[in-house]
Amino acid sequence: MIKMLTWSLRMDHIFLFRIPGIAKSECLWFILLKYYRYLRDSLFGLPRGGSSATVFGRRYHYSDPFGLASLQRVYCEHYGLRSYVDESPVVMDVGAHIGQFNFFCTHYLKARRVISVEPLPDCFALLKLNALDEHDCINKAAGGEGGLVTMHVSKITTQQSSYVKSSSDTYSGKFDVAMETLDALLQRISVAGAIDILKIDTEGSEYDILCHAEKVLRQTRLVSVEMSVLRKSTGSIFKAGSMLEDMGFALRELDCFRAVNTTAANGVFVRSAP
Question: What is the rounded CA–CA span in Å between residue 91 and residue 111?
Answer without folding.
Answer: 7
